[in-house]
């Protein structure tokens, strides 16, 4: 797995290569205007220590921050996403701590409200696989990366609100 961050657009200027997680890219670069994902899948974060806006990137070239739907040229940390060769299961709840209505998904869902009849997800349990929550239906808006585990409240997956419009499995991109 390899990701390369460039200070300037179109893969120009000072750069930093990473083959694993990095909690603070600021010591290597002052800004990030383009990214090349040599192989693998990554989540890059706007702030150090895996905080702020999150962006899911698969193998390919991103010549400017608009190409990964970035709000600005600030990328300060990154996580590599391990390969997953198995099934996918996630349970969503409309209340914190796994209370209230529950719906289990094994496939992508482009509109949670139509499928589950709720627009706010307050907790979830990722049983198998890696997932991305999107704030809006149709895989649009802010993105939130979820590893297997329990998320007792929405702030634990990095969101400032409980709106989840769609969800997608991270698979078959290697």
Structure description:
- This protein is mainly beta and 174 residues long.
- The chain has two domains: 80 residues, Gamma-B Crystallin, domain 1, CATH 2.60.20; 81 residues, Gamma-B Crystallin, domain 1, CATH 2.60.20.10.
- Helices cover 3% and strands 44% of the residues.
- The protein contains one helix and 14 strands, in the order βββββββββαβββββ.
- The protein has a four-stranded antiparallel beta sheet with strand order 2-1-3-6, with no helix packed on it. Strands 9-8-10-13 form a four-stranded antiparallel beta sheet, with no helix packed on it. The chain has a three-stranded antiparallel beta sheet with strand order 5-4-7, with no helix packed on it.
- A hairpin with an 8-residue loop joins strand 8 and strand 9.
- It is elongated and about 50 Å long.
- The N and C termini lie close together (9 Å).
- The mean pLDDT is 93.
Topology overview:
Blueprint: E1 2-8, E2 12-18, E3 34-39, E4 41-47, E5 51-57, E6 60-62, E7 77-81, E8 89-93, E9 102-105, H1 112-116, E10 123-128, E11 131-136, E12 140-146, E13 149-151, E14 166-169
Antiparallel strand pairs: 1-2, 1-3, 3-6, 4-5, 4-7, 8-9, 8-10, 10-13, 11-12, 11-14
């Amino acid at each position: 797995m390899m990701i390369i961050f460039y200070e300037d657009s179109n893969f120009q200027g000072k750069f930093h290569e990473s083959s694993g997680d990095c909690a603070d890219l600021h010591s290597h670069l002052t800004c990030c205007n383009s990214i090349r994902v040599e192989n693998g899948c990554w989540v890059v974060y706007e702030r150090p220590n895996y905080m702020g806006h999150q962006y899911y990137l698969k193998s390919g070239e991103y010549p400017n921050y608009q190409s990964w739907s970035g709000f600005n040229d600030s990328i300060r940390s990154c996580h590599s996403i391990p390969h997953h060769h198995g099934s996918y299961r996630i349970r969503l709840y409309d209340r914190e701590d796994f209370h209230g209505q529950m719906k289990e998904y094994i496939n992508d869902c482009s509109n949670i409200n139509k499928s589950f009849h709720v627009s706010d997800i307050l907790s979830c349990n990722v049983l198998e696989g890696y997932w991305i929550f999107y704030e809006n239906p149709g895989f649009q808006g802010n993105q939130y990366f979820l590893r297997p585990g329990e998320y007792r409240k929405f702030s634990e997956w990095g969101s400032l609100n409980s709106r989840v419009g769609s969800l997608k499995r991270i698979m078959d991109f290697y």
